[in-house]
Specification:
By secondary structure, the chain is an alpha+beta fold. The chain has a single domain (3-58, 68-124), classed as Alpha-Beta Plaits. It has helices at residues 3-20, 96-111; strands at residues 25-28, 37-40, 43-46, 48-52, 81-91, 115-124. Helix 1 (3-20) runs antiparallel to helix 2 (96-111). The longest helix is centred in the first third of the chain and has 18 residues, at 3-20. The chain is elongated, with a radius of gyration of 22 Å. The termini are far apart.
Length: 158
C-alpha cells in the first residue's frame, strides 16, 4: 500500500466516522447505483467523496506521479482537499438543514475551510437505529386511507 492511498483512507475513514457520530445521520448512502464512494485498495468507503484543489495538484498526481485524483496526498493532512461530498440517510424527524448543519459542524475540525456538500439520499424512522428497516407494507384495500379519513360506503340506491 502506498502512502498517498493510506493517507486518503485515513482521512476518508475519519470523515466517515465523524459523519456517523451525528445524531441525525442513520448511515452513509452510496448513491442510487453505489457510485458515491472513496475507492481504496481492497475496499471502498461508500457515501464519502473527496475532491482535491486543482491549484495544489493541477495534474491530479501525487508524489512520484502516482495518480490520486480527488484525494489528499499530503500525509494525514486534508490540505489538498477542496470539497468533501457526504451522502447520508437521515433520521426522521430531522430536517435536511439540521442534518447538513450537524455534518458540517462535525467535519469542520477535520477538513478546515474545505467546502462540505451534504446530500440526504433517504430517510429512516426514529425507531430504526441502523437505517436498514424494510419499507412499510402497502395498504390493503380495506385499510384506512393515508389521509386519516374513513371512507364511507356508497349510499344504497334501492
Amino acid at each position: 500500500m502506498n502512502a498517498p492511498t493510506t493517507a486518503a483512507g485515513t482521512v476518508a475513514d475519519r470523515i466517515a466516522a465523524a459523519t456517523l457520530s451525528c445524531p441525525a445521520v442513520a448511515r452513509l448512502h452510496g448513491g442510487r447505483f453505489g457510485e458515491v464512494a472513496t475507492y481504496l485498495p481492497g475496499r471502498r468507503i461508500s457515501g464519502v467523496r473527496l475532491r482535491s484543489t486543482p491549484d495544489d495538484d493541477p495534474a491530479g498526481t501525487g508524489p512520484a506521479g502516482i495518480s490520486t485524483p480527488g484525494i489528499s496526498t499530503t500525509g494525514i493532512s486534508t490540505t489538498g482537499i477542496s470539497t468533501v461530498e457526504i451522502h447520508v440517510v437521515g433520521r426522521y424527524p430531522a430536517t435536511v438543514d439540521e442534518i447538513a448543519t450537524q455534518v458540517r459542524t462535525a467535519l469542520r475540525p477535520l477538513v478546515g475551510a474545505a467546502r462540505v456538500d451534504v446530500v440526504v439520499g433517504d430517510y429512516t424512522g426514529p425507531a430504526d437505529p441502523t437505517g436498514t428497516a424494510e419499507p412499510a407494507p402497502a395498504r390493503t384495500s380495506g385499510a384506512v386511507p393515508a389521509t386519516g379519513q374513513i371512507e364511507h360506503p356508497p349510499a344504497d340506491r334501492g
